Amino acid sequence: MDVLNLHEGGIVEALNARIYGNATQTLVLSHGYGTDQTVWHFLVPFLACYFRVVVYDLVFTPNVNPDLYDPKKYTKLESYADDLVSLLDELNVNKTIYVGHSMSAMIGCIAATRRPELFEHLILLSGSPRYLNTKRYFGGFERSELKTILMQINQNFSGWVQDFAPKAVGVSYKDAVTEFENSLKRMRPQIALSVAKTVFLSDLRHILPCVQVPSTIIQSKKDIIVPNPVAFYMKRRLGGHAKVEILDTEGHFPQLSVPSLLINVLRKILDI
Q1: Strands 215-222 and 242-250, how do they pair?
Q2: pLDDT, tens digit, for every residue of 121-130?
Q3: What is the pLDDT, as a whole number, of residue 19?
Q4: Is residue 252 annotated as a catalytic residue, yes or no?
Q5: A Pfam family matched by this chain, by name (predicted)?
């Protein structure tokens, strides 16, 4: 396992892990690209009434010491999965409920194949194992489209953010768009480009059959980043029992745009 090279302190400190609530069952919230742990601010107060809620920052966020982000190491989501496993070990928890948004959905899947005892249930929110289309798989993007996105990030990062944020969140959710836009702008452009390449060019479809932990896939009805067919593809391929919940909304960030709707679905999934 290739974990963070920490000069002092542990991974809990390095990734700014915080715990809310004092229940016995641990629930982990892991954010996606362009955000940090604050993306969960609408959900944490509710979930902390029922769980010991752990939130943390992925290593690419501006909240983490930039020296810890190694662009060569983090060209694969497996390295993020190593960080997650190390974090859970340091917290001395297992049988967690894991909620992974976007890229963190697959980070959780990878971690669950390596250390299944750490997870009781995976909740995969707006996740995808592959974003590129192939002849037999619809991921949502043609290679030319992704090439354009990466070029825009490299050449005019702030302009790309302003264009991308409303499309990703949904133009009708103005407050959520502003929140995501401000969060994304905080990233260093070169780190943002590096992480975008890692996410958008990944192909982790082979991981899905190896996941034996029960899973629930939550997906918006309309999401320009992850189209609906991906959710049902994941359901068919996941090795453990899996089900799909489709939210009657648009956008890639339901935890920001429609938190009450997402909470209602989580209530049903978690039986609370």
Answers
A1: parallel
A2: 999 999 999 9
A3: 98
A4: yes
A5: Abhydrolase_6
